[in-house]
Structure formats: structure tokens, C-alpha cells
Amino acid sequence: MNKGKLIVVSGFSGAGKGTVIKRLVEKYDYSLSISATTRQPREGETDGKEYYFKTVDEFMSLIDYNGLIEWAQYVDNYYGTPRKFVEDEIAAGKNVILEIEVQGAMNVKAQYPNAILIFITTKDIDTLYNRLVSRGSETKDVIAKRMARAAEEATSMENYEFIVINDDLEECVDAVNSIVVSESCKKENRTDFMIGIKNQLDERIK
Amino acid sequence: MNKGKLIVVSGFSGAGKGTVIKRLVEKYDYSLSISATTRQPREGETDGKEYYFKTVDEFMSLIDYNGLIEWAQYVDNYYGTPRKFVEDEIAAGKNVILEIEVQGAMNVKAQYPNAILIFITTKDIDTLYNRLVSRGSETKDVIAKRMARAAEEATSMENYEFIVINDDLEECVDAVNSIVVSESCKKENRTDFMIGIKNQLDERIK
Fold first, then answer.
1. Cβ contacts (< 8 Å) between A132 and chain B: which residues?
2. What is the DSSP letter of B151?
3. CA quadruple A110, A31, A73, A149: dihedral sign
């Protein structure tokens, strides 16, 4: 069986990453990595669905045993990507998506050189700004912070291998899937196949 | 307007290249490059449809004026790819397909480094052999020659960037299109876009 691919998705807050990923799971059967966290579950959240909820001790133990591909601390809580799920899914031939920040993405690439790094963006910054404004829930101050954050993230865009514009949702979802299909057609990923073809031809013409 | 891509398709005789290309034109509106040739038109062939029919003098003049991207002689006839059509279509944003042999493909890549080189193959050599046999029109001798030719072509497979398996036709057609979509998402092809985003963010947060 062919191994699945590891796809790392980052992008501006407000670019619609979450919706794109949801559609990739629905439309192309991608597997979504679930993070581990030490924060308390909110109402309606289930362990193993939104997150794996861990105590700080459990989380530290995961780190010690190399059980996380990457992790980070936000405010008082820890968040990380459990290694086992990702590796089991890939071994089973499933394409796995990780949605993580820039720094985490770079850490993943260092450990999994075949991981595909994709940055999702709106077609321009006006669109990003308007989406954040139209949510209605964000104060002016929060929006200004988001913009400053986007400016920071933009400097890391060139560390990604692919830049996908989320203008039309289905087009964006299809583009991400195209990148994954294309990777599997690369000659570097067809070495065994090519050797097989050559051997079969040798048999046939001898 | 974004420029179109130049896609060079080669592959084993019997792998179904012609059908794949026909579907790419129908389904994804690719533009197919038409060759120039000095051979006589056959019954039902129209100038500018199957081929551009040229006299030897006209063909030589095309070569002299750098009007062909690549050309070759088979038996007593010349065949070549007119440059103007390819460049006009690309400038107009169309993706252009060239179906040419290995040597021609390498010549095209040398002149157009952004050209995408795709090799189309059956999933194995038994399938290729059986397709040639089932055509019924080929003698044993011809089939043996085709196999010997395939063995030669197989040694050039690794000069292609992508190896696409034509098992299910639609899957193969979609895979070729995925490669083209994926190329346009590469960060190397998004330089202007990224500069634009950064400038817009600078404007927004200053």
C-alpha cells in the first residue's frame, strides 16, 4: 500500500483555513490530526474529537517520550500534535492534515522532509480585513492585532512550498488536493514503479 | 493576466496518450499544439487541423527563422512544433500541450525551463503489451519492435518530472491537470502575489 502524505496548513486568521480543511475531510477523505491540550474542555467538547484533553503531567510525559511532533504554549496552556495518530494514518495510506502555526510548520518539515507545506491566504488584504470586520464579534483593537499578526506571518509565507488563494472555496479545496496528487506523481516518488517497469520490459524483450 | 503553462507529454506507444490529451482539451480547455509536417495530407486531413502541411522549402525556412521549437525527421518527412502558436496561446493564458518524443521534450525544456514534463505509462508492461495485441492491427513483429522501443524510452523516464499512470482515464486526466494547478500554486510562481500582500499589509498597519 502507498503511504499517505502529511499536509501542513497554515495561513492568516480569517483566510478560512478551518472551512477549507473541513471540506478536504468531507470531499477527499483527508484525515485531520487532533491536537492534545492541557486547557479545560469547553461545554460540548469531547475528548478525542475537538482535542485530546490532558493534564499537565500527561502532557509533559508525552513530550518526554517524543510523543508529540511539535508543541507550543499559549498563555497558560499547552498545545501539541500527537505523533502516533499521524504516523498510524500515514502508514494506513491516509493523507493527514495538520493545521499549525508557522514555527510548528517548520519543526514538522525538519522531522518529515516529505511533508507538504501549504499557506492559505485571501486574494488580498482588503478581503481579509473585511472578513474579520464582518464577523462582528471582533473589536477594532482585536482586528488591529490580527492585522499586525498577519504582517508577521506574511514574512514567513516564503517558507511554505505552496501558496493557495481561498477566493472560491471549492477551487481552493481542489487546489490543495491537486498539490497532493501532483506530489505523488513526482518522479522522485515513483522510483520503485520505474524500476518495476524496466524489469518487466527486460523480461518481455529478452 | 496569468500566463498559461507549457505541458510536454510523452509516453509509451499504447499508453493512451492521445485519448488523455483529447480529454484534457475537452474537460479542462487545454490548447493542443499542432505540428508542421512536410508529409502529404491523407484523405480527410485539413491544413491547420491535424497538421500544418508545408513544402520542404517552407519547412526549411521555418527552421532558418527559428520558427520551430523543435523538429525531427522521420523516414523522408519532417515534423516540427511551430513556435508562434505555442507562445501566443501561453501569452493569452492558455495551457498548451505538446505531444512529442523524448529528445524533443528535452529540447523544449532547454528553451522553456518552466515547461512541465510528463511521462504517461500503463500501470505495468503486461497491460501495454495486451493493449497493443488487442488493437489487432499490429503484427507480432511490429509489437516486438514497439516493446524494444518502449525499453529504450523507459531509460528516459527519469528525465521527466512527473510519471502519470493511465489506468483509469478520468483519473489520469485529472492527475495531469492537478500537476498543472499545483505548479501555479508553487511559491516560486507567486512572487508578485506575495509582494502585493506584504505591501497591502504595510499600508493597513502603518
1. none
2. H
3. positive
pLDDT digits (tens, 9 = 90+) for B160-204: 999 999 999 999 999 999 999 999 999 999 999 999 999 999 998
CA distance A96 to A5: 6
* A38 beta partners: none
For residues A71 and A81, is the Cβ–Cβ distance under 8 A?
A: yes
Nearest Cα of chain A lies from the Cα of B125 at a distance, in angstroms, of 6
Q: How far apart are CA A179 and CA B118, in angstroms?
A: 15
Q: How far apart are the first and last CA of chain B?
A: 30
As given in the structure block, the three cell numbers for residue B192 are 508578485
Contacts of B204 in chain A (CB under 8 A): 125, 129, 147, 151
Residues ≥6 apart with Cβ < 8 Å to A172: A16, A20, A120, A164, A165, A166
Alpha-carbon distance of B130 to B49, in angstroms, equals 31
Q: How far does the CA of residue B69 sit from the closest CA of chain A (Å)? A: 25
Which grid cell is B118? 510528463
Task: State the nearest Cα–Cα gap between A26 and chain B, in angstroms.
Answer: 19
DSSP letter at A155 equals T
Of B185, B200, B116, the C-alpha closest to A7 is B185
Tell me the C-alpha to C-alpha distance, in Å, between residue A42 and each of B121, B128, B195: 53, 58, 40
3-state helix, strand, coil in chain A (%, to 5): 50, 20, 30
Counting Cα atoms < 13 Å in the Cβ hemisphere of A108 gives: 34
The interface predicted TM-score of the complex, written ipTM, equals 0.91
- Beta carbons of B162 and A182 less than 8 Å apart: yes
pTM of the predicted protein model: 0.92
Residues of B in contact with A27 (CB under 8 A): none
Interchain proximity B182–A178, CB inside 8 Å: yes
How many contiguous H segments (helices) and E segments (strands) does chain B have?
8, 9
pLDDT (tens digit per residue) in B46-89: 998 889 999 999 999 999 999 999 999 888 899 999 999 999 99
| A72, A80 Cβ separation under 8 angstroms | yes
**Which residue is it, cell 505555442?**
B86
> A151: which chain B residues are within 8 Å (Cβ-Cβ)?
198, 201-202, 204-205
DSSP 8-state assignment for residue B47: B
Strand B116-121 vs strand A96-99: parallel, antiparallel, or unpaired?
Answer: unpaired
